[in-house]
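seq as requested:
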Amino acid sequence: MPADAASEEPARQPDDAPGKVDAPAAEDSPDTVSILRPVIAVITTVGTPLTMITALLLYFGWARSDAQSRWMGIEVSLFRFTTQDYVLRSISTLYLPILASAVIGIVWLAAHRAVTDKIERDGMTDTIRVICRVTMLGGLGIAILGVVLPAFTRTWEPGTVVWPLMIAIGTALAVYGRHLSRRGQEHARPRHAIARPPDVLEAVLVGIVIAAAMFWAVQGYADIVGRGYAQRYEDSVSSLPRATAVSESPLGIDSPVVRTEEITTGPKTLYRTTGLRLLAESGGRLFLMTEGWTVQNGSIIVLDEDDSVHWQFSH
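struct tokens:
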């Protein structure tokens, strides 16, 4: 071979040459699943509690409005409340339960972090075994009492809230204690990347029990709050805005405390109706209470808003 041709041939570098950069192994390249795993974890960790809280707020708003309406002698569907109305009506009376739940959650997270750190550091010690056993048995006992005691305390009104909460809290404690026990036993074992079907089924069933108990407790609390609001209206009807209607024809309200008088303005005759108090306005309707309204003696009038009827509200 000529010397000039040999000089033009590129020199081959050995495999261990300093300047050579090895191509990354195929198995080290990130795949779609590994990239999306943190995103999925955030969605499942944050999205599910937010969905549960929103559902509880919506259900509480409806249950509270339904209890209040039934106590006052009307149907809640007449108000034509929207989903936003129900959620807003629930927030005003759920500040304390939400605050208490948040504080309990913060305390539980701190305790959980301390226990799990100890398990990762020391393994399954006697102290951890005692904590797991007490949590499991105590939670199971609380849940059983929540199921049994309602049969003996039917007339205790707070029981409609206390007993479901005992079932939910007891179930959560028992499952959490079992989870800690499993974690301690599997400390030295490799973790499964894919959840086993029995574990998934167990998580679903536990979630159903806790969710059902929470909705049961919300129903009981909403009944108590709704009746309280209805009784408050009975005691403070005189503080509601006074409603006076001027219409082209009589409104046809049959009540001994509602008065209708004619007003003549030139060739036109109008009708003024008094003796009413404004309860609410919703869904294009006015809800009016008669003066001196009580649950046993009084009427609630529902009128569609009409341009032919002019209203005047005053204190």
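Strands lie at 242-247, 259-265, 268-282, 285-290, 300-304, 309-314.
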